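User: What would this chain look like folded?
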Amino acid sequence: MTETAMLDVAVLLSVGRHPVSGRARRAATDAQALEMALALRPKRLTAIHAGPASDADALRGYLGMGLERLTLLVLPEGSDPVEPLIAHLCRLAPSLVLTGRQAEDGEGSGMLPYLIARGLDAAVVPDVVRIGPSDGQPSMVGTTDLVQALPRGQRRALTATGRLIATVHPSAPPARASAFGPARRGVIEPVTAEATADLFLSECEHRPWRPKPKLMRVKRSGSALDRLKAATESKSGKGQLLVNPTAEAGALAIYDSLVEQGMLP
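Assistant: Here's the prediction, encoded as structure tokens.
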């Protein structure tokens, strides 16, 4: 990591949802992004969240990781956070912006880092697992070395120049636990921001996620007559005739029949 990038780092944080209880909490990949930023030890670290003022309690989970303060861009419910974040980042002018790859609540399209990068005229590197040279050698001036996650566990070393926005992959180092004391002592600074309504999100239907039912696969082959015969004719020849069986033989035959029909494992 270059000295320039270590001077000023910004982290974009969101409010997540517990997958079972639905309780508001810190988002998993956003917490990993904050962990990566803390490991860099920059001279200025700015944590930013854009949302309603009611998100403050859930944001204290990030303060418990060691943050002293967090900036809350107060937006009306259902507002689009892209433009307020771009305006705030333009004032800060950080050389590195870290964020999770996708929000756990709301629209969750994963487009936020790309829209902000377009507004800041910055480069985007997705699925980052580490920031710093892979060989331990110091980076060139004005460049940032990263390690990107690829499918099937592969990794790729990259070098970026200029302002950079990086999204963090779930396989990045895990976030530290949130301590209760620092979470209560941390300061959340509310900043009023102007935003437009998210028209797309207002037209969407919100409901709890649940797995979709799996469709049964029906094997269709042959002509209509063959399918009719297969459905109506009785199958013979698969039974077993027992004449005066012993108790053990009868029980074994019943057990094998139940296993064959799938009623027993």
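The longest helix spans residues 247-260. If you want, I can go into more detail on any region.
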